Amino acid sequence: MAQVSAGVDPARSAVFAPLSDVGRAELVERRLQDAITSGVLHDGERLPSESQLGRRLGVAVVTAREALEALRDAGLIQTRRGRDGGSFVTFDPETARRFTDERIRALSRVELRDASTHYSAIAGMAAELAADRAGEEDVRGLRELVEQEDLSSEGGARRAVARFQLEVAALSQSPRLVREELRLQAEIGSLIWLGLREPDNRARSRAARVAELDAIGAADTEAARAVAVRRIAGGVEWLLDEKSRLEVAAESAEQSAPSPR
């Protein structure tokens, strides 16, 4: 059976995984911002307390507090006082889209392609080892998860992809690959899988996961690796196209803006 607990949501686990570069409020802010704008953290959801957040991310309480203050100023969370108080997600589609677009435009094409190379290497090796090491029960368990996926929304599709990626890493029987998959999901997963906002891409993504699963079940290591790499590359190519679209739109808006007198 697949090795990730049925009660675990890998996308959420990635959000609260320890940071490798500790002590920076900006990293905590970006991690939570990505999770909110991508729908992994839901509107109205209560976040961990400052002390809990610091402990889970491996940062000081003051660092977690600064990140939450920045998210509050950005309108992504609100804080309520009292017995049932805390910090709660305030998801607004327009605000989320604006933050996501700004993040895409801020990243260079070199950074995005480098991220694709790195993630492809990890996902490809995980799929190859899974095809070599997974048993029939493992494959059957993973197939059941794929069949139960909810692709009706972008958030649901993201969670389905995150879970599949982590399950395959678990089937590789390499703890290091599992940890690296989790880290990459937290760092760039919200961007690489941004194309899942489009229903057609959700369907194509599921078909690719089924093809990868079939290759793992057939113990075809080469095919499993190839499909995994193509899935990552496809996500990044969509992202690069979206970056170009945003840049063209920004340039057009700038040209059409009235010039100062």
UniProtKB/TrEMBL annotation:
Q: Name one GO molecular function term.
A: DNA binding
Q: Which InterPro entries match?
A: GntR_C, TF_FadR/GntR_C, Tscrpt_reg_HTH_GntR, WH-like_DNA-bd_sf, WH_DNA-bd_sf
User: Could you tell me which residue ranges the HTH gntR-type domain spans?
Assistant: 22-92
What Pfam families has UniProt attached to this entry?
FCD (PF07729), GntR (PF00392)
Keywords associated with the record: DNA-binding, Transcription, Transcription regulation
Please give the Gene3D superfamilies that the UniProt record associates with this protein.
GntR ligand-binding domain-like, Winged helix-like DNA-binding domain superfamily/Winged helix DNA-binding domain
Domain of life per record: Bacteria
The protein depicted here goes by the name: DNA-binding transcriptional regulator, FadR family
Source species of the chain: Microbacterium azadirachtae
